[in-house]
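Sample intake sheet
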Amino acid sequence: MNVARSFNNWRKFRQTVSELGRMSSRELQDLGIDRADIRSIARASIAR
């Protein structure tokens, strides 16, 4: 994996964690997401 792709994956991971982290517990619950699952969801978002 090249440096640019690694950087873009890291940025996408951080953005996903940040956006989900700003949501209230109620909003996350409505989406069926537990706060403890945010990082694994972010990891899955870069695996696509």
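Comment: Residues 3-46 form one domain. Helices lie at 3-22, 25-31, 38-46.
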